[in-house]
Amino acid sequence: MKQNKLAWFWLLALVGLLTVGVMGKVNQSSPSPESFIPSTKEPIILTVSAAASLQDAIAALDPVFESTHPNIGVNYNFAASGTLQQQIEQGAKVDLFISAASKQMDRLEAKNLIDKDSRRNLLSNRLALIVPQNSTLNIKTFEQLADAQVRRIAMGEPRSVPAGQYAEEVFLNLGILPQLQPKFVYGNSVRSVLSAVESGNADAGIVYATDAQISKRVKTVTMAPPNSHAPIVYPIAVIKASDHPDAAHTYAAFLASPAAQNAFSQYGFGPGQ
Fold first, then answer.
1. pTM of the model
2. Phi and psi of 42, rounded to 5°?
3. Is the dihedral of CA 229, 233, 237, 241 positive or negative?
4. Which residues contact 76 (CB under 8 A, 6 or more apart)?
5. Count of Cβ atoms closer than 10 Å to residue 21 Cβ
6. Would you say 158 and 165 are in contact if contact means Cβ atoms under 8 Å apart?
7. For residues 205 and 198, what is the distance between their CA atoms, to the nearest angstrom?
């Protein structure tokens, strides 16, 4: 009888050990019900394609946004608006687009690539005629660019760089475009135009007032008359194929907030029109 009880004891012990072993394996491979609930704090990385002229202002604003939205990180792609437009058309993974002109945004809208309801004019700007800080040329007007002493004029490539498009409009409206065309040195972004003037590789250049403001190596001669070119606006919109549309809307709202708009004004931008 004692042997039978002992045998039962060892049998029950063995069953218990096997049960514990099996349950351990189940718990390791099967998540608890709570793990199926998505976390609202899951890290998100946005990709924002923005006009090159916005680089300094956005770089200053980025830490503010990420400190108030710790679960949203932002990667930036700064380039000419036309280049960014083409990248989006070709399927680049972008969540939000900020152009330096309406034309590029209009084309994306026509192809149904943006969320139309999210589109708004975020900022405005002005067009400046600049020369190197140590320039000895006595240039005071756009018309004087036709003088023989001015040999090289830096400007954005009009087909892809909005600042170049605006500059071409100014020259056309002033009736001096044919005289200036042989002097043009084209840049692939407004920042490359600024660099050409800073380095002295161009006698003068056409950039946004905001670009002229950030450089100590150039001086502003004059501003283009407002009626000499189309209004310079910066439309913003969420890309329809965005993987994170809610976060993109959140970031767009942040840029439109009074605090962000005040920061933009410190860099020379005006409000959206």
1. 0.81
2. -60, 130
3. positive
4. 47, 48, 49, 50, 55, 58, 62
5. 10
6. yes
7. 10
